[in-house]
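Weekly structure sync, notes
Attendees: PL (lead), two postdocs, one rotation student
Agenda item 3: pending single-chain targets
PL asked that the sequence for the first pending target be pasted directly into the notes so everyone works from the same version. It is reproduced below exactly as submitted, 186 residues in total.
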Amino acid sequence: MRVIAGTYKGRKLKSPPSMEVRPTSDRLRETLFNVIAPRIEGVRFLDLCAGSGAVGIEALSRGAEWATFVDRSRKMCGLVESNLDLCRIPEDQTEVLNATAEDFLKHHADRRSEGFDLIFFDPPYEHDYLTVLRLVAENKLLNNDGLLIAEHHHKKELPATVGELTRARVLKQGDSALSFYEPHQG
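Predicted structure, written out during the meeting:
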């Protein structure tokens, strides 16, 4: 795995040690960032089920102001921190939290911190996506002009709307798909 573009372009990232974690492929990451490129500069980025942190690091490399990495595995959080160090990303641009996506989303609203401009959610494919999508919608964690992207198996159909979120696009590539959700406008 490597950083594809931006400030940290070409930096090699450490991969998860086992196949239990399915990293987003370089090709799918490149496709994702081609789609969101116009929106990335200066954003607050949330990488849920971060794994190696490659997606959040790519966001920082391409101009995101801040990235929060959340993973339920302490080993994966350590891997994210190691990859941040490899890229020499300043600590004042990141936060790495050991929590489930659900716990983070439930408690984030209590912290009264800013919402996120971009949220990337890439759990194990058998995960309950609907709970996380509902928590993002209910807790208004996505800024008004924000975007939530969920990576899932291409045969798994995610709902067209969840609370205040509407799916604007589905992009399929290989066995994976990306569903893009935006807050309702108006």
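Discussion points:
- The first helix runs from residue 26 to 36.
- Helices lie at 26-36, 54-61, 74-87, 101-108, 129-138.
Action: rotation student to compare against the earlier draft before next sync.
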